Amino acid sequence: MITVNKIDLKEILYLRTLFLQENNFQIRYDACHQRGWTDSYVLNYNQEKIGYGSIKGNEDLKDRDTVFEFYLIPSFRNLSLTAFSALLDSSMATFIECQSNDLLLSSLLFQYGLDINSNVVLLEDHQTTDIKIDNIIFRKRKENDDVFDHKAEPIGDYVLDLNQEVVATGGFLLHYNMPFADLYMEVKEEHRKKGLGSFLIQELKTQCYLAGRVPAARTDTDNIASRATLIKAGCKVAGYMLLGKVKNNS
Questions:
Q1: Could you tell me if 52 and 111 lie in one domain?
Q2: pLDDT tens digits along 111-129
């Protein structure tokens, strides 16, 4: 009853538009499609296209063995188990990776996956904050700014200035699904634990909205300090990245 065919990405983009509309949040692996790192499969029922599945590479993105997107038109959701099983058989995927806030695929992960784990927490904007820190100026980075060595994040387009010293930088990435953007920042080591990170994220959120984007963020699950910084700046946990092995291929 269900058939699966490998197909060009452009042939399932109209279905992916429905997927993005339903999942109205930042999709971590959205850019994999534009970068040519995915294989696309269309799901057919009685010769009607009822959904799609997308497969990406695992870790180094060379071997395309991980289901990371799955969508069925709502009126065919009763066929989810059959359709997903057919996708796994056709693609020979050995892993399933998804966001816990993607309810359809995460439910299938727990049905078909094992050894499920998470190492990334996803955050979304939740409320407006009014953090103020004396003598700190938030501004655009200048070409002649003397910026400290960064260990974790790229040098951002915005800085915190303390007495003409750059003590933090940050920005937001735009290669995610519209209208979302991904916040990032780094504070100079000797100026940490002073609330500068949360103040910077607060101001970056404003710049994000002014650019027509909705701020979002992600961090490692074991990075408690980063998560606390984002939450203090008005973000909240939106979900987790989940990864599991396909049971039949374990």
A1: yes
A2: 999 999 999 999 999 999 9
